[in-house]
Write a structure and sequence with these properties.
There is one protein chain. With 124 residues, the protein is an all-alpha fold. It has five helices and no strands.
Length: 124
């Protein structure tokens, strides 16, 4: 199930983004401070930007892999959470009834929540 790996990557990406935002706001709040501390912050910001770009590329690659997947869970996850389609349209496209699709979505959400709990919300 590729959607779980995609979800992990997405959580890591968002965690890095929050870290970068915190570093930038810290830099802005310390405008008049020592140059050494400011240089360390700038170096950290540049490092985080590199990590963020790398994770964005990984996320795009995983999304393409997810779109090519034939697994019904991956297809439903992609249609609902990436393409933002309605459940009725998803049910028609995968050939399931709406209640079946809702059950699968609930199972997918349970798995995603379990992954997020295992990774601590994806920080870092």
């Amino acid at each position: 199930m590729l959607y779980l790996a995609y979800e992990r990557l997405k959580r890591n990406y968002h965690g890095t983004q929050r870290e970068l935002d915190a570093a930038i706001s810290e830099k802005q709040s310390k405008i008049g401070t020592r140059a050494a501390g400011k240089q360390r912050l700038e170096a950290r910001i540049e490092e985080l930007k590199g990590i963020l770009a790398e994770r964005a590329d990984l996320l795009k690659a995983k999304e393409a892999e997810l779109k090519a997947s034939k697994d019904v869970y991956d297809r439903i996850y992609r249609m609902r959470y990436i393409d933002r389609e309605k459940v009725r349209a998803i049910a028609r496209r995968v050939g399931y009834s709406e209640p079946q699709t809702y059950r699968l979505l609930k199972e997918i959400q349970t798995n995603v929540n379990r992954v997020n709990d295992d990774t601590g919300g994806g920080e870092g």
